[in-house]
């Protein structure tokens, strides 16, 4: 499942490029504040906990668990219409933040909240990639 | 300095149309303005504050609307926080009136969502070349899907069942059967909901609101002035707004904006949920209403499934909700907040015949805007008879 969905090259800007370049290297890259230590996703130009500009990137383990999901049976948008059903999910990473993603690599009706998953990456143009998760 | 008890809704109008291919959004709003001003016993020249928001409205939308109506108000507010906007407009209007920025506020909404075949629930999710959207757009999150993420989590944590969500759809349809203007009036059963096709698990087709055309208008003024007008005033007792975003960190998905906006509204009004006689709550999906009830404090987190069961929210129940038939059965032209206000005012004025909530003294209005699973707004009002 989900394999029919073609991921377009992500639109990036300077705040988000490190994440998408990480996906191109098959890594989940998160931000950490050097001042308060908060880990955040989605990436942004400063720390959303203390507003410090002193933030760094680090490579996360790429593992986590399904926090919630839905089996999408209907989506009229051309990119998705022919690829239903697919599993849309929030995955909570071991480092804390959640990502919206797809769950692939298993029958859609086998997905459960709390299921352990790991990231896999679909390469796009520009040496970038899009992450989705499969059973760990 | 509080606005509680000083401001009133003096005029309302709900456009009877549910399908209007011959009209534009502006025309629907203008017809609604005419209806609400007639209702209040006011004329267009009395309007000195204009409030509006819309799906197809551009950044200058409220200015264009003033031009269409040929009015020159001295106070403008185009706050757009999604479908809850018009609930928030009531409190914004109250603040503006209390501060002397305007005296007669006209709140308008109109849309031809249905005749334009707008696929609100399942037509979104591809996004575009926007870096901010890039974290969602690859995954095809529909509007239904965003709410389904909340429903799935609720079921996992609390054992909430599809049958319980279906109770909401069934009760709302029972209300709609008493409203001649409601789009969907044929009675449905829990089995009908469960047997309707799954759109985004665990939500079925009949867990989702309908799409219609329509519009509405609300006139807000000081209680003092409202007492001299054509209708019995409906008084603003409390109000609150809130935002929730689920896209950074790991917030509790089931604590929604209603939690904060409701607390603020109850606190301002000096009221508690036990004193509320009925509610109008944005029911974009059955889960929206269930999560809202828990967050407003009508029941504990996780108890929403039991709370909505057994006819409590149906006609004649202990807490009737959406006695007009709501978005699930009456109308949903893209953004529904204005109808929540209109129906609450109608109930508090009284005399609605079969769908009148008996003994309606205090009504709660809550609008949700945006997508519950990613980011959304909430706006709450507590209204009472004079």
User: Separation of termini of chain A?
Assistant: 17 Å
Indicate the multimeric state: heterodimer
Question: By CATH's scheme, which homologous superfamily of chain B applies?
Answer: Thiolase/Chalcone synthase
Termini Cα gap of chain B: 20 Å
Structure summary, number of beta strands of chain B? 11
Question: What is the helical fraction of chain B, as a range of percent?
Answer: 25-40%
Number of strands of chain A: 8
Main β-sheet of chain A: number of strands, strand sense, barrel status? 5 strands, antiparallel
Overview of the molecule:
The complex is a heterodimer of chains A (136) and B (386). With 136 residues, chain A is mainly β. Chain A has one domain (17-135). Helices cover 9% and strands 38% of the residues of chain A. Chain A has two helices and eight strands; from the N terminus they run H-E-E-E-E-H-E-E-E-E. In chain A, the strands form two sheets. In chain A, strands 6-5-4-7-8 form a five-stranded antiparallel beta sheet. In chain A, strands 2-1-3 form a three-stranded antiparallel beta sheet. Helices cover 32% and strands 19% of the residues of chain B. A nine-stranded mixed beta sheet of chain B has the order 3-2-4-7-1-8-11-10-9, sandwiched between helices. In chain B, helix 5 (162-176) packs across helix 9 (286-296) and helix 8 (258-269) packs across helix 9. The longest helix of chain B has 16 residues, at 25-40. Chain B is globular. The mean pLDDT of chain B is 94. Chain A binds chain B through residues 5, 7-8, 10-13, 15-16, 20, 40-42, 48, 67-80, 83, 86, 88-90, 92, 96-102, 113-114, 130, and chain B through 119, 122-126, 128-131, 133-136, 138-142, 144-145, 148-153, 156, 197-203, 246-250, 253, 373-374.
